[in-house]
Specification:
By secondary structure, the chain is of the alpha+beta class. Helices cover 40% and strands 36% of the residues. It has helices spanning 2-18, 44-58, 126-157; strands at 33-42, 65-82, 88-103, 108-121.
Length: 159
C-alpha cells in the first residue's frame, strides 16, 4: 500500500507541475533579429555597455527581422550620508534606463524600463574613493544589462 501511495503522490505532483503554466524561455529566438539602428541619449558610458549587450544578445546580420532600438539612460550621483562634521561619508549612484524596441516586421513597439542603485563609501584616500565609485558603477551597469536582457527575452518569447 505504501508503494501505491507513492505512485499516487507522484502522479499528483506531475499533474500539478505540468499544468502550472511555467514556460522555459527560448534563447534561440533572440538571434532572429538584425539591429538596424541604435539611438542613444544620456549617460554615454552606460549606453555603451548596454549597446554592446544588445548587439551580443540579438544581432544577426543575415536576419530578415529588423529592429530599431532607442536607449535613454540617466545616471545620478547624490550624497547619501554625512558625518557630524558635515563631511560626506557615502554617495549613492542611481542609474535609470529606458529602452524602446521597435520590431519593424511586427509593426510593434515595446518599452523596457530598468533602475539600479547602490552606494559606496568615501575614503580618506581619494584614489580608493574613485575605485569604489568605478566598481559600484560597473556592477550597476552589469545588473542593468542583465535585467534588460531578461526583459527582452520575455518579450520575444511572448511572440
Amino acid at each position: 500500500t505504501m508503494k501505491y501511495f507513492n505512485v499516487i503522490i507522484y502522479i499528483c505532483l506531475l499533474t500539478l507541475f505540468t499544468g502550472c503554466g511555467f514556460k522555459v524561455l527560448d534563447q534561440t529566438k533572440l538571434k532572429n533579429y538584425k539591429i538596424l539602428e541604435i539611438t542613444e541619449d544620456g549617460d554615454k558610458k552606460t549606453n555603451f555597455f548596454i549597446k554592446n549587450e544588445l548587439y551580443n544578445l540579438l544581432n544577426v546580420d543575415d536576419s530578415a527581422n529588423g529592429l530599431i532600438i532607442s536607449i535613454k539612460t540617466e545616471k545620478v550621483k547624490s550624497i547619501k550620508e554625512k558625518n557630524k562634521k558635515n563631511k560626506i561619508t557615502k554617495y549613492n549612484i542611481n542609474i535609470v534606463s529606458s529602452i524602446e524596441l521597435n520590431f519593424i516586421d511586427k509593426n510593434l513597439k515595446k518599452t523596457i524600463n530598468s533602475r539600479k542603485q547602490n552606494s559606496y563609501n568615501v575614503n580618506v584616500n581619494h584614489n580608493i574613493t574613485q575605485n569604489n565609485e568605478k566598481n559600484i558603477e560597473k556592477n550597476l551597469i552589469d545588473e542593468l544589462s542583465q535585467d534588460i536582457s531578461n526583459q527582452i527575452l520575455k518579450i520575444i518569447n511572448a511572440f
